[in-house]
Amino acid sequence: MSEQTLEGRKAIVTGGGAGIGAAASRALAAEGAHVVVADLNAEAAQQVADEVGGEAWVCDLGDTRALEDLRLDADILVNNAGMQQVSPIQEFDPERWRLLHRVMLEAPFLLIRASLPHMYANSFGRIINVSSVHGLVASAYKSAYVSAKHGLEGLSKVTALEGAEHGVTSVCVNPGYAWTELVAKQVPDQARAHNMSEDEVAEKVMLAPHAIKKFVAPEDLGAMIAFLAGPHGGMITGSNFVADGGWTAK
Question: Which Gene3D superfamilies match (predicted)?
Answer without folding.
Answer: NAD(P)-binding Rossmann-like Domain (3.40.50.720)
